[in-house]
Write a structure and sequence with these properties.
Number of helices: 15
Radius of gyration: 23 Å
Structural class: mainly alpha
CATH class of the largest domain: Mainly Alpha
Number of domains: 2
CATH topology of the largest domain: MetI-like fold
Shape: globular
Largest sheet: none
CATH architecture of the largest domain: Orthogonal Bundle
Strand content: under 5%
Helix content: over 70%
CATH superfamily of the largest domain: MetI-like
Length: 272
């Protein structure tokens, strides 16, 4: 009975995996077709012949490199800002005593319930008065003043670190900032990696803010740039699929390099 249940579990996992992978494989195959093959009815599953030239054509027919570079700038600055600001604020909420600490933290959590579309207009007005419209600054500057999800994540990480480490640091003469930087930050590497990956994925795929704050094509991020080429590639929609798949490569690379941190615990890494 146990053996049958085991094989049934494997079969269910295989079917579920196939259902999730099938749309991605379809996109890969469509990106390697000509326009005639792409629009053929009934459709052919496999491209014949395979048009590998679709990917070089995307680079030659668009500002794909500039769009990618803009996304890299926004993502890297956002990650640095989110990791530094969120961890510092979270450390204060987790380890420092000050008036209305719990009330302020509840307010921070409350901001997570506000949809981005509600705040986008006030942000637009503020950035317009500051002269930051049509620049990349509005896309990353807000991460430097604290991210509610990041604050919550890092606060939970710092609360799980035994107080013995903090007391030992005080005996060695560390002030609160030194304790935060030299003791708590290294022990929270798995959570920092998680925050960095979530921030990267959010900023890399963001489309709402760039569509509001950016107007010049040379400042477009990658998702915005790919969408702007839809009209240019009318009649060659397979290029859109190729460009979309190329935009996924950085996300896969970042996830593969940071995956090991997901399986580590904050305490175990600190003790090691």
């Amino acid at each position: 009975m146990k053996k049958k249940f085991k094989w049934f579990s494997y079969l269910l996992i295989a079917i579920s995996s196939l259902v999730m992978v099938l749309p991605f494989l379809t996109a890969v195959f469509n990106s390697l077709k000509s326009f005639q093959q792409y629009t053929k009815v009934p459709p052919d599953w496999l491209p014949n012949p395979v048009q590998w030239s679709n990917y070089p054509d995307v680079l030659q027919m668009s500002n794909f490199g500039q769009f990618t570079w803009n996304s890299i700038i926004v993502s890297v600055l956002s990650i640095i800002g989110a990791v530094l600001s969120s961890s510092m604020i979270a450390y204060a909420f987790a380890r420092l005593d000050f008036p209305f600490r719990n009330s302020l933290f509840a307010i921070v959590l409350g901001t997570m319930m506000i949809p981005p579309v509600v705040t986008i207009i006030p942000q637009f007005i503020i950035f317009k008065q500051l002269g930051m419209l049509d620049t990349l600054t509005p896309l990353w500057i807000l991460e430097w003043v604290g991210q509610p999800f990041g604050i919550f994540l890092m606060r939970q990480a710092f609360l799980n670190i035994p107080k013995d480490y903090e007391e030992a640091a005080k005996l060695d003469g560390c002030n609160p900032f030194q304790t935060f930087w030299k003791i708590f930050m290294p022990m929270a590497k798995p959570h920092l990696a998680t925050l960095a990956i979530f921030t990267f994925m959010t900023k890399w795929n963001e489309i709402l803010a760039p569509s509001i704050f950016l107007t010049s094509k040379e400042n477009f991020t990658l998702p915005m740039g790919v969408l702007s080429l839809a009209g240019q590639w009318y009649g060659n929609e397979q290029y859109m699929i190729a460009a979309a798949l190329m935009s996924l490569v950085p996300i896969l690379i970042v996830f593969l390099f940071a995956e090991k941190y997901f399986v580590r615990g904050a305490n175990s890494s600190g003790i090691k």
